[in-house]
Design goal:
- The longest helix is centred in the C-terminal third of the chain and has 24 residues, at 343-366.
- The protein is 37% helix and 23% strand.
- The chain is globular and about 55 Å long.
- The chain folds into 3 domains: 5-123, Rossmann fold, CATH 3.40.50; 137-366, pyruvate-formate lyase- activating enzyme; 372-430, OB fold (Dihydrolipoamide Acetyltransferase, E2P).
- With 432 residues, it is of the alpha/beta class.
- It is built from 14 helices and 18 strands.
- Helix 12 (302-315) packs parallel to helix 14 (343-366).
Amino acid sequence: MEKKRVNVITMGCSKNLVDSEVLLNQLERGKFEVVHDSNETGFDAVFVNTCGFIHDAKQESIDMILDYAEAKKRGDINKLFVMGCLSERYQKDLETEIPEVDKYFGKFDMKAMVDELKVTYQPEYIYERKITTPSHFAYLKISEGCNRSCSFCAIPKMTGRHKSRTIESLVKETRYLAKKGVKELLVIAQDLSYYGIDIYGKTQLAELINQVSEVDGIEWIRLHYLYPTKFPIDILPVMRENVKVCNYLDMPLQHIANPVLKRMMRHVTREETETLIKKIKQEVPGVVIRTTMLVGFPGETDADVEELKQFIRDMKFERLGVFPYSQEEGTYAGDKFADDLSEKIKQNRANEIMEIQQQISAELNQQKIGETFKVIIDKKEGEFFIGRTEFDSPEVDGEVLITSEKGLKIGDFVEVKITGAEDYDLYAEAII
């Protein structure tokens, strides 16, 4: 008997990707043939795992649902299901607007999704996943939800309050990933800073990282999304002393002008932020900080933007991204503040900041020429092997384009010497 086929499409962030991987594993255990992000047709069922974060991401998810609704009409697929954040947030509206979908599921309806396909849900395997990333790196989602009250953000409305997973379960999952060949662990959550408080009464991020670092096979651990408010200072000695923990910290700041931070309800000031960054750099020499800024927030003045620009010039962040503000219904800012800046102004401000960052990144990269780095090999493209240093996260940061007289293996660690630099990427020769 031919296996039934299921395709899971993932929109949005890496946290969604982990959910998709869990679903794929459950269905595969139920004797389905499963694929991820396939463009093929002929599937018995397609799940679209949606994003509901900001307007553009929501529209991309809706467009994907509509594409598959048309595919279902043509008979290219049999059943169409929708899951994830958009479905969690707008299920009733979606049911009315796109009735072609067979069923909508919320973000935490894993059992119901599995049951829908007549597969026995196996909670004992819930932290086993079908890895969709290159086999040498994977994400480890350590919590769900968020206790923050940032005025621009709708995520807590979709994901609920912060819920940490136990250290024991995360170590178990890490062992599973390591057996699958994972060498680099990307630790993710909406807010790493809160990890453990809900179940242990205090932050346990440092303890968690120490324990997962003991798993054989894991060589790099990197941290994504620590907030500057209630920052767990005890993670810094771990970063400094534990050789497996990358000197890389993803800490979204969003802004630096105090009036804007106050309206954003970030519960931090410029002065506190600068003190924290100084401490991080003192405690962890050579640390690379990735951050994100949000421009065009209601009430943001030209002076606020100039202050932010100067801050970025002074700090010289190695990695920085920027988003124009998107007003979201149901948020404090969406309900209380007029969206008083045009999309053109927002985008111009974002572009101006990225021009500054591009120059900073180019200058920092030029300084690396002649230095040697340990890199992990992600893929081969044309004449180059493509790798990353410990200071680069996959998909969001720069890459190292490597030439080598000998063939290099995907997933291997290699010493390289930097021979050239672009704004974001580096060129290197393998040291054989």
